[in-house]
Amino acid sequence: MTDQVKIMDKEQIKEIKFGTSWSTQFRFTQAIGRGLNEYLNIKASAHVLGPGGFSELANGTVDVIFSKWVVNEHRYTGQGIYSGSKPDEWLRTIAWLPQEDRFLFAMAPHTGITSFEEIVEKKPVLHIAGSGGEVVLNEYGFSYADIEKWGGSVRRVEHTAAEVSRRFAENKLDGLWGDGSAYDFSAWPWVGLRGYRFLAVDELIMQKLESKGLRRQITPSGFIPGIDRNLLALDDSHIVVTCRSDLDQEIAYYLAKAIDEKKRDIELTSVQLDYDHGEGGGLPMTKTKYWSSLTGRIDKQWDEFYTGAPLHHGAKSYYQESGYLVS
User: Fold this and answer.
1) How far, in Å, CA of 241 to CA of 16, rounded?
2) 147 found inside a domain
3) CATH of residue 88
4) How many structural domains is the chain composed of?
5) Which of 97, 118, 182, 273 is the most exposed place for a label (fewest CB within 10 A)?
6) What is the pLDDT of residues 94-142, one digit of tens each?
7) How many angstroms separate the CA atoms of 101 and 50, rounded?
8) One domain for residues 153 and 136
9) Of 179, 208, 234, which residue sits at a domain end?
10) What's the pTM value of the predicted model, to 2 decimals?
11) Domain boundary among 193, 214, 234
12) Residue 314: partners with Cβ closer than 8 Å, 6 or more residues away
């Protein structure tokens, strides 16, 4: 894109609608939007969506969402557990952002449960805080609905120590299940320090999951308190800036440029402050901790192995002109 074209672009107002579903995505939207505004005269808006946001992306409610590589790959190819009734051939990507993540399943010591097999065998009454990773449960022969059928409950939870502490006091924390990134929410160390047992996925079960287009992840011993051995887990890594093939080409081009040239700003915007594992009840801050939703530097963000679906032509043009990709 020439400087002359850039000047012409600034004379036009172009609209872009970002879909977001949690706080970190708002931070990404803010940082990327700032960068994009340097190249285009844009009217940007953020729309709060439920998890995923694919239906809103498909019907044009939003232009960009933050997805996971595995969902993109399955939906684009039409193969895998996250695929729709047919391939979403319109699906395109701009860049991927590094976030090492996996699904964790921690059980309270009073349950005596040390494996998924025991849950299937005993069908105990369990009150689970969290969600996600049900594909793992399905391979063992049960679901979240089964837990409720057996007399238990499954309720979403904010992954903070303060929230799981409240659930614990209410006797509603037999298990904490959900995603656990390398920046680890304060809820995970809270349960780990109280003797909760983290369940490992069996090798044969993992192979079945891999046959369905999923990937494994090894969570090392000591990653957080309570993980006392290398833990085989289902991978849920990396955030992908995702769009449709009909997204305005100049917007896609400058989105890629903004992410590339403002990557350090995006990384810094992702940094947040936690303290006391949420247990202090307010000031004074006794244990400060900085953490980020990103678990690495933004680099090679054009790699389609991690985007899960092809790059948008506009984004690809930027990467080619910048020498990152061969034309």
Assistant:
1) 13
2) yes
3) 3.40.190.10
4) 2
5) 273
6) 999 988 889 999 999 999 999 999 999 999 999 999 888 899 999 999 9
7) 20
8) yes
9) 234
10) 0.80
11) 234
12) 247, 248, 249, 250, 251, 252, 253, 255, 256
